[in-house]
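Record copied across here:
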Amino acid sequence: MNIHRWMSQHFFIFFLTWGIFLPYWSGWLIDEKGLTVSDVSFMMSAGLAARGITTLFIFPYLLRVWSSKRLINAFGIATFLSLLLYIPSQSFPALFIATLLIHMCYPVLMPALDSAASVLVQSRQLKHYGKSRSWGSIGFVVGGLLLTLFTGAFGDGFILWAMMLGVLVFMLLSLFQTPEVLTVKPERTKETSFAMRDLFKVKHFGLVLLIVILLQAAHASYYNYGYIYLQEIGAPKYLIGVIINIAVLSEIIFFAKADTAFSKFSVGSLLTMAALGSTLRWILVFAFPNVIVFTISQALHAASFAMGHYAFMRYLTKNIPPLQVPNAQGMYSALALSWSTAVFTILGGYLYEIEPRYAFIGMIICTIPSMLLAMTYRKVEKRG
């Protein structure tokens, strides 16, 4: 079978739904369910906290007793069932429960797919992670653009139905052939250790993890308030999806070329450039509150997100033993993509209600320390 095609298809469909969920879900809760910005800020932050628990503890444990295929299928079904709960939910408590459940199930598919890709790379069945991952970014763009067309025709209520359709297609992928290495659950021997603390025995793992935690946390305001901020500064509604997807187009270009264009760059150099690009991005959004500059700054997503993620994946595949990959992915997903984002979502919401621009400049509290740490790691890396 074509391993690259299998991995690319799964990345494409998952991130197609992610292109709906990430930028539009907060706005959908506000517009369709009548919640306030502070309500959604609290709800999404609690969801991110729940997501962190699932990805840090439940995901690595299940990947020790289940195969990758079984785990991906199980969480795909759980995600679909969680989405169904939103249909009858109207009160804050009901929506809060639905949001906790969707965050506990749906985002687990991201580290599950990245772990599958890492296993395929380490077993030399997948040659280029970046090229397969670029199809995820393409899916994100397609999801956002299609949603723009359909919400224009049918209203924001279509967002939920689009999510459900995308997740259903993802579930149907399980009917096709899966790479054999992903259908076998890990076999534990007496010498095998799955302890998460053993990751910190790997050279510089703690420092690299801290850098990417800060890098990813800096996206909290953008992910949760970028959509409504564009409305705030007068962006035409029909163009908002296009503007958001410029960031993902920059991801596509980066991931498609990363394996060759950045093959000679060290992980430390990549992390330093990512932090520099992220800092510049949020300064531009703050200093020039208009649609044109926001649109231009979207290109820096290639540095602030894609380069940081790619650098961590490169560090992981070169330094982390295969049986510890789920632990590393779970820790990255929980700490970098969930808990830190949850904390800064609350900060961003507080700043947004004072002045929308403050929510973005506030993110340099993460990017500047990450840049200093990345420069330190780069020096340490050179010394070996």
Q: What stands out?
A: The two ends are 39 Å apart (CA to CA). The mean pLDDT is 88. The chain has one domain: 3-184+195-383. The chain is about 80% helix and 0% strand.
